[in-house]
Amino acid sequence: MARFCPHDGQDILVLQENGTIRSVFSSQSTLQHLKRRNSPLQGLTNLTWLVLGNNEITDISPLQGLNNLRDLELWGSEITDISPLQGLNNLTRLGLGDNPISQSQKDDLQRALPNCRIDIDIDF
Fold first, then answer.
1. What average pLDDT values come out for the chain (124 residues) when binned by 10 residues?
2. Is the pTM higher than 0.85?
3. Of 10, 29, 37, 63, whose CB has the highest number of CB atoms within 10 Å?
């Protein structure tokens, strides 16, 4: 089941399977903070696909507990610290294009997640 959920004036696409949220998509909005304390993402432990591109996000530490994520898109934001992603061992694809991330940061993350394709360039 797919549905759009209005949230603070934004549209967020939520995909559910058997009552469990599996995918969330929010793009081209002004979502800046994922909120560390009581983050709505923290309870979504079965989430496998998350797209938060073009959202001006700076802090991604609330994503640390989402261990079932396989595809994560965070392009077009203001992320400078990607170390919170190092424990997401199920990631197979990570999009970080158009963020101020250095090649050395990407290399460190690639060593931590050897089975993940990490893109820091945007290829449309």
1. 43 53 55 53 79 86 90 92 96 95 94 95 56
2. no
3. 63
